[in-house]
Write a structure and sequence with these properties.
Radius of gyration: 21 Å
Order of helices and strands: EHEHEHEHEHEEHHEHHEEHEHEHEHHH
Shape: elongated
Largest sheet: 7 strands, parallel
CATH class of the largest domain: Alpha Beta
Helix content: 40-55%
CATH topology of the largest domain: Rossmann fold
Length: 357
Amino acid sequence: MVAGGGTAGHVEPALNLADAVRAADPDAIVTALGTAEGLETRLVPARGYELDLIPRVPLPRRPSGDLVTLPGRLRGAVSRCREVFAQRQADVVVGFGGFVALPAYLAARNRVPIVVHEANAKAGLANKVGRRFTPFVAEATTGSLPGAVRIGIPLRRSIAELDRSSRQVPARRRFGLDPDRRCLLVFGGSQGARSLNAATVAAAPALTAEGLQILHAYGARNADQIEPVADLDGYHAVEYIDGMDDAYSAADMAVCRAGAMTCAELAAVGLPAIYVPLPIGNGEQRFNATPVVEADGGVLMADADLTGDTLVGAVLPIITSTGRLEQMSQNAAAHGVRDAAARLADMVFAAAAKGHT
């Protein structure tokens, strides 16, 4: 049973692991644990897995009346987890952090073998608790959890096995791009796109004047931002990209946020990037990008410093230099991990086997 509900950053690695487990053992039964409010209600069934729901128990970030009711609500979620474990006859529980993982860990302690995976460079409370209950702890970034083994983040097979060079021409054809012009991919997600969009629109005339083309995923709610350059030659705008493997193949370089999954995918496929961490939370996005940047596979830029001029200044010296672009691509790929899903699946099988000895 995978417990990774809430955000796509929790759900996607859980489902990628589920695919790897079933690939390794077609007879394995994999189900997911989540809440009614999370993206898992849409993402899990779409990938062909069954979903059991538990109550959502967010942890208050500051003193409030919610603290009084927290113990009772958490007990209720733990009790529901135990019911699900019994109904599903769970042999192992794999947690990926977040609201769903904490009650799952507490419910499974001393009852069902636990595997913990931490995707972010800075671990959250759930995984800090869960790792105390098991020797099977994996991480994407060295040092996020004591005793963890760095294996990377489980990726979709379409990303993990991607050969960008062989796919470049058909991928560019899909998006209506020129097969011979260098391509800058810009994407930021629906919540994190507006400052990226503003800088991209401001930079687009100068970038295209240098012979570049831009593939810009701007987000469905942000169509107003791209109007000034909508008809600019070499500028290609889409609301959303379905199939990031094609986008990565079409691109020579990317500009993006620094979510854990984004950093893992770009490094694995060897795509250099300007990482602009979303300035929220505890700054975890900056920490996510730091290792690949230190390996010279990307560049960090603060959101507050992002303008059309700074974007042009960061992109052009890299994307117009074949040697620099190829070196950064090699550095990113050397840092990236493509087989994390299979390695985590091996850990899952080992934990399940130990639980039956």
